[in-house]
Amino acid sequence: MFEKMTGESLEELAVRLFDAGAVRLGDIEAKLGRRTPIYFDLRVIVSHPKLMMAICRQLQTLANEIPHDILCGIPYAALPFAAVMSVNTNTPMIMMRKETKLYATKKILEGVFEKDQKCLIIEDVVTSGGTISEAAKTIRAEGLQVAHAVVVLEREQGGANVLKANGVHVKSLYTMTNLVKILRNAGRISDETAEIVSDHIKECQFGYSV
């Protein structure tokens, strides 16, 4: 059973996420043309301030266990979470651009930072681990240290192991198994859907090095 924080458990938060449309079911095309029976879309949360705050509180619980000097949210879904966490905890934040700025400063990282500061990556979902691995590589190239990431959902498809092999340890609010169990117990998804998702996790695994 997950522990409560500020009066709301992770089970309750999961149900609120589902009801807000952040969990979509069906044969959905995900990143790079991959198909998935369940899709976690946290971009909708920018329209739900109270839900945004609840997620950030829970992410901060994970972050409190990790030594860090600065935060970096992966664009675009995790940027709002990093921003709220930064303001709530008075922790500096940097932003990573999708591509290097082609004029003026020509930066890939926006914000103020110093060499060897410990940077904590914030992300919404880990599937293959590729996005966080590339982000860590970019941030390290700018002289910062990256050893941890906190995420909302770890899909259990090999991404966490890929990241660990690349020196990034992941802490998550939910694994896909946990999330599906919570939603099934709450009557939001059927036993059949839960089985389909479980089979998908087993069949679609990633294990390459980035």
Automatic annotation (TrEMBL):
Show the Pfam families listed in the entry.
Pribosyltran
Please give the Gene3D superfamilies that the UniProt record associates with this protein: 3.40.50.2020
CDD domains in UniProt: PRTases_typeI (cd06223)
Pathway participation: Pyrimidine metabolism; UMP biosynthesis via de novo pathway; UMP from orotate: step 1/2; Pyrimidine metabolism; UMP biosynthesis via de novo pathway; UMP from orotate: step 2/2
Phosphoribosyltransferase domain location is 48-162
Q: Which GO terms describe its biological process?
A: pyrimidine nucleobase biosynthetic process; UMP biosynthetic process
Regarding protein family, the annotation reads: In the N-terminal section; belongs to the purine/pyrimidine phosphoribosyltransferase family.
What is the recorded name of this protein?
A: Uridine 5'-monophosphate synthase
Provide the gene name from the record: LOC106116209
